[in-house]
Hints:
This protein is an all-alpha fold. The chain has helices spanning 6-37, 70-74, 89-108, 112-134, 139-154, 162-187, 194-207, 212-232, 245-258. It starts with 5 loop residues before the first helix and ends in a 6-residue tail after the last helix.
Amino acid sequence: MALPNLETIILFAALGLIVGSFVNVLIHRLPIMILQSEEKPTAVFNLWTPRSHCPHCHHVLHWYELIPVVSYVISKGRCRHCTQSISPRYPIVEVITAALFLMCLRQFGPTPQALMACFFCATLLALACIDAETFLLPDILTQALLWVGLIGSALSLTPTPLIQSLGGAVLGYGLLWLVSWGFEKLAGKEGMGQGDLKLLAGLGAWVGVWSLLPLILLASVSGLIFGLVQKFRGQLGHNGHFPFGPFLALSGFACFFLGISMGA
């Protein structure tokens, strides 16, 4: 495949920064929306309302304060009005999203397949960050990952044939359900949430049935290492739980971009 020209590289990088800014919105607002849905909301709160504002002084941000990465650098990571520090997670997510979009461009060229891969990356990154911060995996994102993956496969917009995509989705949910059920029977407590099962089903739709076992093994080994390190440092918590979604996401990225698979 011919190397993309400079204009295309800049376009995908800029698109990644813009989408990364929206990913930050998802990371911040979706958990609040989920928790509010369980209560009687006191005010309208969704992805669009209220407008973006400082989390400390609630000053509504102008457009020039919302330029990905640039605004954060110019303001030195602080609100221009109350001078309180702003989390570095915002520019980090934007830069990671841009880097992932460039990886999609390198893998698929300037094609519809690359844009589909960009959707996969942005959604998976949002899920990983939300789970890491809140132990939540919103259905709206896991279902979008699943259905867009299946539809994209049916339209030949992903590298996974439809039969493998369907098998990956079904087996992905089923395998993790069996593991979760077995752990609950042996240990007498829930070891994995429903969100993890739905996430693996979505990943299966993108990477296919032959990549499921390597994906699960990679996620399990990396999660186990993380858990042992956290336990050794005394930061694991009394219930021993930690979010598994980020490890599924990282393994999903590895299988998707590196083509890790057990067969053809």
